[in-house]
Amino acid sequence: MNLVDLARLQFASTSVYHFLFVPVTIGLAFLVALLQTAWFRSHDPRHKRLTKFFGTLLLINVAIGVVTGLVQEFQFGMNWSKYSVYVGDVFGAPLAMEGLAAFFLESTFLGLWVFGWNALPRGVHLLSVWLVAAGAMLSAAFIMAANSWMQHPVGYATSSSTGRPVLNSIGDLFTNPVFVWGYLHVVIASLITGAMVMLGISAWQLRRGRMLFKTSALLSLVVLVPLSAVQLGVGSYLGVIETTYQPMKIAAAEAQWTTCQPCSFSLFQIGGGNNDETPTKIIAVPHLLSILATGTWDGKVVGLNELQQQSVEQYGPGNYVPNVFIQYWAMRVMAYLGSLVLLFALWGGWIALRRKLPTSRAFLFIATWAVPIPFVMNTAGWFLTENGRQPWIVQGLMTTADGATTSVSAADLIISLSAFFLVYIVLAVLDLVLMLRYGRRDLQEIDEDAEHDTRTDIPALTY
Questions:
Q1: What is the DSSP-derived secondary structure letter of residue 99?
Q2: Which residues of the chain have pLDDT under 50?
Q3: For strand 280-285 and strand 392-394, is the pairing parallel, antiparallel, or unpaired?
Q4: Any residues with CB less than 8 A from the CB of 257 and at least 6 apart, and which?
Q5: pLDDT tens digits, one per residue of 143-164
Q6: Annotated domain spans of the chain
Q7: Which region holds residue 452: left if phi is over 0, alpha if psi is between -120 and 50, else beta?
Q8: Whose CB among 4, 195, 299, 429 lies 3.0–4.6 Å from 290's, allowing a Cys bridge?
Q9: CA 365 to CA 374: how far, in whole Å?
Q10: Residues of 275-288 as b/e, b for ≥16 C-beta within 10 angstroms?
């Protein structure tokens, strides 16, 4: 592996790891806010106990998520200095907004929420948790705006003195179609992830006869059922957006080497990677690719070979086809698991309507073990998004190879990558142990522990 490959591997591994915590943090923050709102309106102490219970799980993920996110910031200067110099006049604005506005908002009000149970009025304390949820979503918005600019650069002009892009329209940056639909896709995925985590933990507790968790299980299903259906529609339209601005990404997701009209979608295929342009499609669904890629029954999808030729004519010699194997299977992992989550949610909703949720042993068992599904689905989605942009680091403006730092040696990257790998393994084990430890506790045990704590009433300390 050369320097660029090692730098890509390091950023990819740290990004994928960090994104394990982002969606569950956004999702749980929203759900905890809903639980506390229920307590605020009903004064039911059971809602307060559930709020603190899942609030502790939120705090665990926030702590580890923040640490892993900071690592990515440093990589821009270390491994991607040429890229940072080139896009700094554009990329710096949303990153600064994320740090100065969203992150400070989230962290400030998270502190008020944690330490304010006995110090703040109930309404102010409730507002603080909603601002935590808003800050988490706002933080994701600024990051997605920057990432979407890399996918489809808008709102910039090229400086005559430096030759670098300079942001000249912040409005264009936040109305970028790739951002609007990509951000909506990420937010819904985050809420689904948080709901699946809450449902899995509640199911485990219900299997042990702890009926209070019926409330959190029902809440998670109320969020999960409609959003898992909406997500399929949003993801489908996002495919149309990407076909418009990044046709190579969508063609690679189907391993479509030749132009077709109408186009079928293969549920499975053999071959079709970068060195095999004649895949054997298994169970090809007629017209489905045309619908997903263009939104029309007989839409045209330009093939990889034709797109490669167009790119060579426009940008010069080079290979502009991303890794087709990754694109094809990342697309199917994300889509198939998304469909599976919808079916699972509908099953749970049907059981809940029949008032048999606490006694449905089969559903509760599967719900407990289904928690990893959204994490795998989210990871596949990011593989699809980021690998599909290659070889560009900024679509049409800068290749990934041109953005890498040349002064960092391969040995430096290998050492740091190994160190990150070891540290992240430790953090993963720590997070898993803490989540299992606190997620399995009985609320009665927690209340008994809280009686011995005379200092404050915050969830992190009462546990």
A1: I
A2: 449-463
A3: unpaired
A4: 251, 272, 277, 278, 303, 304, 305
A5: 899 889 999 999 899 988 888 9
A6: 3-242+326-462, 247-321
A7: alpha
A8: 299
A9: 17
A10: eeeebebeeeeeeb
**What is the reported pLDDT for 457?**
46
Can you list the positions of beta strands (E) in 120-250?
Answer: 156-158, 165-167
Amino acid at 379: T
Sign of CA dihedral 345, 329, 296, 189: positive
Report pTM: 0.90
- In the block, tokens 């600064």 appear at 96
| Residue 57 near residue 28, CB atoms below 8 Å | yes
Tokens of 234: 């949003």
How many CB atoms are located within 10 Å of the residue 429 CB? 10
Backbone angles phi, psi at 83, to 5 degrees: -65, -45
Give tens-digit pLDDT for 395-450.
989 999 898 888 888 888 888 888 888 888 888 888 888 888 888 888 765 555 44
The two tokens of residue 232 are 């399929």
Eight-state DSSP code of residue 405: -
- Reduced to 3 states (helix: H, G, I; strand: E, B; else coil), residue 21 is coil
Count the neighbouring beta carbons within 10 Å of the beta carbon of residue 172: 15
- Which two tokens mark 247? 């046709």
CB 280 within 8 A of CB 255: no
- The CA-based diameter of the chain, rounded to the nearest angstrom, is 73
- DSSP letters along 26-42, please? HHHHHHHHHHHHHHHHH
Tokens of 438: 């606190």
